[in-house]
Amino acid sequence: MQQVNDGNDDAELNYRLGEELIERWRRGSDLEFLVDLLRSEKSGERLLGAYYLGEVGGIDGLKGPAIELADDVLSSCRRAFVDYVRSSGCYDGTIADGLAKCLLDIDLYVRVTTMKWAIATSDEIFEQFSLLVESGDGGRKPRFPNPLSNDFWNRSTLKRATRGLDIIRRLRAGQKIKEIREDFLEEDSFVLDNFLFWETRRERDLEWRKTKAGH
Question: Residue 85 belongs to a domain with what CATH number?
Answer without folding.
Answer: 1.25.10
